[in-house]
Amino acid sequence: MLIFFLADTSGKEMSMKRSVFLPLIIGVGAVVLVASLAGSGNVWKDLKQLDVRFIFLLSLNFLAVITIDALRTRILLENMPFRTCLSNSLWGFYASAITPFAAGGQPFQIYHLVRSGIPFEKAASVIAVRFFSSFSFTIVSGFLFFLFYLDTFRSLGILGDLFFIGIVLAFVFYVFIMFLSFSRRFLERFFLSGPVMKIVMFFTKKSREEVENLARERILGYISTVKELWRSSKAKTIITIILSGAMIIAIHTSTYLSMKAVNPSVEVSLFQIITVQLALSLVVYFVPTPGASGAVEVVYYVVYSNLISKTDAVVSLLIWRFFNYYLFIILGIILGIGRLTKKPEEQSSG
């Protein structure tokens, strides 16, 4: 949310290329660690025997996730070309993958929409509705399925206790985000507080009075736009919530497909994997590494090595992480993050 104030058309460039290498290093290190536990020779052997049918389904699932995410933006912004909505989704996934706590996706999507000609208040409200609908679905379903698998998590000892702490923190964060997204009074108290003001002043290079005026103006416009969006587009908001649930399910379906790609005869059900993933997704929200790298790999291996063989767990981890993480980084690099962060006059001259 803090970068919302920086999502301006003032021409400030954002440097994100340098952030790519850290999550790659952390993620690869975690994979090497879990692969060594399962036996790297067996891992390499299984990688060469993947079932191409499920790899194809994973590719389709990947496209479905991006398409559904872009469709959410297109529904809330009727005049926005679908191609721009697709780009916005890709930039969001890319920024989440390379920023601490995976927190950069939404601010960067706002930045992208503003650069695409959408007023800041409208862009912020649309991204807020998208994020809140996804997060609400994840929190509610994740908590229910955490209770469903409570005995399983208890059997993990101290790691299970950490999962419980993660659930509690997720709920606290959810309440905080709810107030931060929809309460004008809370927004003003938060953004006009001393520490936040100093951070914004540092990045914007503006005086305290300028920052206060900008903050009040943005907050008032944002809250008004959110209320107007709900009053005039209740059906669209409800459809967005439904699509958000479908997107989250599609994201976690990739875990099941990854396991089947490694071993088609593995005895796990789609429902079982999706519900476990929903519970686990709450735990990694507070890992400070870019895209939760390192923790995601370790948690995946610890939990699923109790459901399938250790080798299958490691290989499916590699496949799953590629389609849900590294592929977004690769696409971000290919599309050229630099093109987005150039000033308009630089783009036209190029």
What does this protein look like?
The N terminus and C terminus are likely disordered. Helix 3 packs across helix 4. By secondary structure, this protein is mainly alpha-helical. It is globular and about 60 Å long. 40% of the residues are buried. The protein is built from 17 helices and no strands. It has one domain.
Summarize this entry quickly.
With 350 residues, the chain is mostly helical. It has one domain.
SSE blueprint and pairings:
Elements: H1 21-38, H2 40-47, H3 52-76, H4 82-98, H5 105-115, H6 120-148, H7 150-154, H8 158-182, H9 184-191, H10 194-204, H11 208-232, H12 234-262, H13 270-281, H14 295-304, H15 310-335, H16 337-341, H17 344-349
Helix pairs in contact: 1-14, 1-15, 2-15, 3-4, 3-12, 4-5, 4-15, 5-6, 6-8, 6-11, 6-12, 6-13, 8-9, 9-11, 12-13, 12-15, 14-15
Features:
cell membrane; mainly alpha; 350 residues; transmembrane helix; Integral membrane protein-like protein; disordered C terminus; globular
